[in-house]
Predict the structure.
Amino acid sequence: MNKKMFIIGFVSVVIFINICFFCSDPVKPDFGQAPVIGNDKKITMSGIPEKDSILYLILTAEGTEPLNFQWYKNDTIISRSSLDSLKFEPLKLSDTGSYYCIVSNKYGRDTSKSADISLTPKFKVMYDGNTATSGAVPTDDNSYAAGATVTVLGNNGNLAKTGHTFAGWNTKADGSGTSYSGGDIFTISSADVILYARWTTNPTYTVTYNGNGNTGGAVPIDGNNYETDATVTVRGNTGNLIKTGHTFAGWNTLANGSGTSYMPGDTFIIGSANVILYARWNINIYVVRFNSNGGSQVDSQSVAHNNTATEPTPPTRNGYIFAGWYSDQALTTAFIFTTPITATITLYAKWTAVYTVTYNENNNTGGSVPVDTNKYISGAIVTVLDNTGSLVKTGYTFSKWNTNAAGTGTDRTPGETFAIGSQNVTLYAKWNGNPYTVTFNSNGGTLPNPSSITVIFGSTYGTLATTSRTGYTFNGWWSDTGGSGVEIKSSNTVNVPNNHTLYAQWVIKDADGNIYTEITIGTQGWMVENLKTTRYNDGTEILFVTDSTTWANFSAPAYCWYNNDISYKDTFGALYNWHAVSANNPKKIAPPGWHVPTDDDWYTLENYLIANGYNWDGTTTGNKIAKSLAVKTGWNVSTIPGAIGNDLTMNNKSGFSAFPGGYRNSGDGYFYYMGGSGYWWSATDVDSTCAYNRYLHHGYGMLYRASDMYKKNGFSVRLLRN
């Protein structure tokens, strides 16, 4: 017998063919072989029985061909073929089951043993951004068996979606499945899982105001919609909310006031919920006062709105019988202590039988009040006592008595009588202000008009005197000599309890109202400050020129500030061309009583200082007076002995107080030498183009006179009293 082997898939089939070489009978008998399954009829598996793998079920069978292979799964035929193997590609969970095969040919059949395919399925967990607009989904590279525990990943790829907030994951894209957050765990079933990003629309929240039991007014309206973490500004009580018996005290996040309190204008960060701010009401606490009407003192009580006061122990009063508490001063309505308190009230004690008359000194400063020891019944006649205790009050004279401390009640003259009513009477001393003479001292001015006035203590001064003084501006009447102390105006109340004198105060003012001080040097009265007015003494404005070219070509009166900077005004004053200060100018730059010094006036100053020891070396000859004229600050430093800039502490012996204000050049209109030099005009001109001036230099010790300075230069001005 020859064997012929066919390899079909992974199944080896051996076919035996009988060939009789010695038979000559032309009719050959059919000796075919029925199928026989080898390997103890077992089915062989080739591959790994895992989901998505490739797996073969293989049989080994012998028998006469053709062989027919019928494969069964759970007793249901699933394949007929001539193949001895069953291929699964890929292997699915649905392929799980019990398999066997029937091999047949025309000579017979044979049945294999069963082979079971049992899968341990593995599943994936995948993440879906679910319409995210940025970021990346996390990746879980693990494979999980059914029933395995899965730890949900977080949003580590920073997924984001415009207008939304990441809120975890869900097993369905529409969020209707099971939701998970990063770090949550779940048990995987027998299927892959897709976790979809769950998005919540960024919410907006409102702030609503609640009157919280108000009885009037309206709550404010906040029409804004706020996102989480937005800043909210708390509204005020713009609708004038009120609640009977309570006072508005701000807002609170809880109606009972135990939440967070806010005041109008406060701010807070809104969270993730609508906010209701409830009006916070403080219950009103009222004072119940007890007016014992002359009896012993009864302490006040503090009572909350709608609560009741406690009836106190009755007061006592000599000669009286306590008759109860009354809610009105007239004692017509008895008070019932079960009455709810809804306002601050005063309860009045009612007494019967007798009343007193008491005298009050009404702010006296000496003496004592008379004492009436009588007890009067209602309607009894009272004789008013005199000022037997010699009451006095500074600045006043005792006049009579009055039933009101302010004197607006009924007057009672000593000796007169009146019928007492049904209450105690207090008579207050009534004081009339004393008359005093106020004398005016003009302090060097003209005779005051009038020279004196009569005033009443405690009343206003009324119209005051007028006076004038050449070269000065009147600056009011003052309480002390020399025009110091306290200024007294017409509206001031007289509080000096005697005759007294008021003194005129005088100041030096220019047309702009700038105030100057004065120093006397020899026979001359000089202003201590450089002139800084921008107007003539008639109020006309002096032309203000800032442009350099205009200044250099200007032949009319003009002024400027150094470097066109008005901040130099107070210290250095203004710079004027000579045309503004000229004696020939019909408009005068000096206030009345003053003038721009002439060249001779400057000589007078110079000669006086030299002759009276103002030279820096103490000599009385030679012009060495610069240091005695210059202020102690602001000058450049010099090492030259006797120079202004050498030891500034030795400067200004004369009190002239010359500052190094520099000047404005007539040729180019530029500013020069602030800190180094100071220049001052005289009213005397040399010719049509030049005028005399004086100047000081920090490096020299003399006061210089110049006659070659163009009138277009900008120099400082010092004024001299006429």
